[in-house]
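Could someone model magnesium ion with this protein?
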Amino acid sequence: MNFSVQSVSKTFGEGRHARLVLKDISLRVCSGEFTAIVGRSGSGKSTLLRLLAGLERPSRGLISMNGQPVTGPGPDRGPVFQNYSLYPWLNLAQNVAFGMDLQGRFSRREIQERTAYFLDVVGLGDRRKLLPRECSGGMQQRVAIARALAAGPKVLLLDEPFGALDLHIRAAMQNFLYRLWERTRLTAILITHDLEEALLLAQQIHVLAPNPGRISHTLATGFNRQDLDKLRFSPSFLQQRQSLAQAMESVEPCADGSQGFRSRREDGRN
Ligand SMILES: Nc1ncnc2c1ncn2[C@@H]1O[C@H](COP(=O)(O)OP(=O)(O)O)[C@@H](O)[C@H]1O
Ligand SMILES: [Mg+2]
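Reply:
Sure, complex below.
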């Protein structure tokens, strides 16, 4: 599996109202890699994820998977968004089964087996009959991840998946996602404004600078991730976190004269 973004730009609106949101984005994600894209609020992260998912089309450039252009949403790319997007009237198992039902490529029995398997994977095997409203945010997001995985995607696309969760639940979910990745070696692209989250989970991090959104830095991480809770406070981790924060602060205005980085105006919300 090879996911490739080549010189992709995205403009919203036309004429006088045209707004360049992403400019000349290129990146490549290989099979089994965990990649993060970090950027401030408004830098175009969600737009980029929607392009990768095929929910938007690039204005310029090409997005392809295994050499095939991405022209629309498909079961090979499983998106997970910040708001769990579960159907409130379906129980957890029915929510996981729903995406597979739609695809039509799994038999009844396969759907049942995969639903049970992936609910187990996210630790909710014994909660299958609960309705979303009976579950915490962390549980709901695990169901959303199970649903995406059950559909058999070649790449998992995560847009601020833990952004709405309390801090300590977020840390637990980060640990969960990393262990899941270790076990399954799934290919994942995580969009986040949380530098710690990106550093903890990803082997490769792209920084998206705003106005217009463009990749200003790319870095590789090489931590020992045996104990993520220890890693969070280790000197080398904190040092790399600081360098990443500095990289985000040091973005030059765009060469075409458009407005570059706006200092500290934005908070971390997406
Ligand atoms: N469908 C759209 N039409 C017009 N502008 C949009 C649309 N989607 C996003 N934008 C604009 O693109 C910019 C980047 O948005 P977004 O991708 O949501 O950023 P982020 O996820 O990094 O906060 C914002 O200024 C937003 O208003
Ligand atoms: Mg966003």
